[in-house]
Design goal:
This protein is mainly beta and about 120 residues long. The protein has a single domain, classed as Rieske [2Fe-2S] iron-sulphur domain (Rieske Iron-sulfur Protein, 3-layer Sandwich). The protein is about 0% helix and about 45% strand. It has no helices and nine strands. The strands form two sheets. It has a six-stranded antiparallel beta sheet, with no helix packed on it. β3 and β4 form a beta hairpin. The radius of gyration is 14 Å and the shape is globular.
Length: about 120
């Protein structure tokens, strides 16, 4: 329940691919309602982040991934895939948006609701 409005919020998930489509250590760009989302398989866990680098707009799925960190291919800015936090400097205005994911019956699902964790 939202403590501000008193309303119950319902998280809506959309299926974006099958688990087998993205092997461990791989990524894929998916679209939900016109939003480009980078989907990453990190050791069997699926993490989703806005696919556009907040700095220059480059596709993050084409960046280098090490553990839970993706490095933008243009200027090599580093972002945490779990939180979206820009890791190189304390500048939260460059944090990337993340999204909640889940796997249901072998399908990866993503919610466009904000990931406030």
């Amino acid at each position: 329940m939202d403590s501000f409005t008193g309303q119950v919020s319902i998280t809506m998930f959309q299926t974006v691919c099958h688990v087998a489509e993205i092997g461990s250590g791989q990524s894929k760009m998916v679209m939900i309602d016109g939003q480009m989302i980078g989907l990453f398989n990190v050791g069997g866990e699926f993490l989703a982040i806005s696919n556009e680098c907040p700095h220059a707009g480059a596709s993050l799925v084409h960046g280098a991934v090490e553990g839970e960190v993706v490095s933008c291919r243009i200027h090599h800015w580093n972002f945490c895939l779990r939180s979206g936090r820009y890791l190189d400097q304390g500048k939260p205005e460059f944090n990337a948006r993340t999204f909640v994911t889940r796997v249901v019956d072998g399908e990866v699902q993503v919610s466009l609701d904000a990931d406030d964790e």
